[in-house]
């Protein structure tokens, strides 16, 4: 492994932490911590990743709070192809997804982190915060959910959303995919998730508490979305 590769690997938890913050709902708490996020970027080894994150910070600063929130909702909340819930891409609302969510909860617990009741365990900002705190099991979770990451990345590029920079940084930290993996992601992007409808009650939150676990030290813990539960957002996205 080259020295540059070692430096890149060493800073990956910081990349995951920054990405987790930037992909959350842009409420007042998140917008207030953008300067702190920007101040942390010099520690990111890869110049391209620094530029990607700076671009998203600058984008959010240029928008007023209302416009930032509306664009976020338009981007992530009302489509099956730009969901922040990663297992949805492969499984849709099927029994298989319920098992995938349960497996993620077990992965969190084995690493010593209790998954919150306020969000499904495949919510990307939560997955990234877990990966920042527990890099090895977090890396395995990201690999397990990579198809969702890649389909979301493609959809954000197609929309010309500034958030594609965050997905580019994340996917660039993962191993080079094989041809059959790329073909699988292409099929998922074209066909969308399966449509079997089953309840997710064993995994859904009772209500949004406004408290996020694994918040970056020194930062306020921004809520994923005010006054709406993950399950409600999932229903809106179908």
Defining traits:
238 residues, mainly alpha, 60% helix, globular, disordered C terminus
- The overall strand count is 0
> Which strand-content bin applies to the residues?
under 5%
Proportion of residues in helical segments: 55-70%
Structural class by SSE content: mainly alpha
Quickly count the domains: 1
Structural shape: globular
Average predicted local confidence, pLDDT: 80
Low-confidence stretches: 1-8, 198-238
Helix count, DSSP H or I runs of 4 or more residues: 14
What order do the helices and strands follow? HHHHHHHHHHHHHH
Largest sheet: none
Gyration radius, rounded? 17 Å
Distance between the termini: 44 Å
Structure description:
- It is a single chain.
- This protein is mainly α and 238 residues long.
- The protein has one domain (3-236).
- Helix content is 60%, strand content 0%.
- The chain is built from 14 helices and no strands.
- It has helices at 3-10, 12-22, 28-32, 34-40, 47-62, 65-76, 87-91, 95-110, 124-133, 135-144, 146-159, 164-172, 179-191, 230-236.
- Helix 5 (47-62) packs antiparallel against helix 12 and helix 11 packs across helix 13 (179-191).
- The protein starts with a helix and ends with a helix.
- Residues 1-8 and 198-238 have low confidence and may be disordered.
């Amino acid at each position: 492994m080259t020295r540059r590769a070692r430096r890149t690997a060493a800073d990956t938890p910081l990349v995951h932490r920054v990405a987790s913050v930037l992909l959350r709902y842009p409420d007042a708490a998140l917008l207030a911590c953008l300067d702190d996020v920007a101040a942390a970027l010099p520690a990111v080894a890869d110049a391209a990743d620094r530029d990607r994150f700076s671009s998203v910070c600058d984008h959010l600063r240029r928008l007023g709070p209302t416009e930032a929130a509306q664009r976020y909702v338009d981007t992530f909340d009302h489509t099956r192809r730009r969901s922040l819930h990663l297992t949805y891409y492969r499984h849709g609302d099927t029994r298989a997804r319920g098992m995938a969510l349960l497996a993620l909860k077990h992965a969190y617990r084995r690493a010593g982190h209790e998954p919150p009741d306020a969000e499904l365990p495949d919510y990307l900002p939560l997955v990234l915060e877990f990966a920042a705190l527990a890099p090895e099991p977090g890396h395995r979770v990201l690999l397990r959910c990579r198809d969702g990451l890649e389909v979301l990345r493609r959809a954000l590029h197609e929309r010309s959303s500034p958030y594609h920079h965050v997905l580019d940084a994340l996917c660039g930290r993962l191993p080079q995919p094989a041809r059959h993996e790329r073909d699988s992601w292409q099929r998922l992007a074209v066909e969308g998730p399966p449509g079997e409808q089953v309840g997710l009650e064993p995994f859904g939150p009772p209500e949004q508490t406004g408290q996020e676990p694994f918040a970056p030290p020194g930062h306020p813990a921004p809520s994923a979305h005010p006054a709406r539960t993950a399950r409600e957002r999932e229903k809106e996205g179908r």
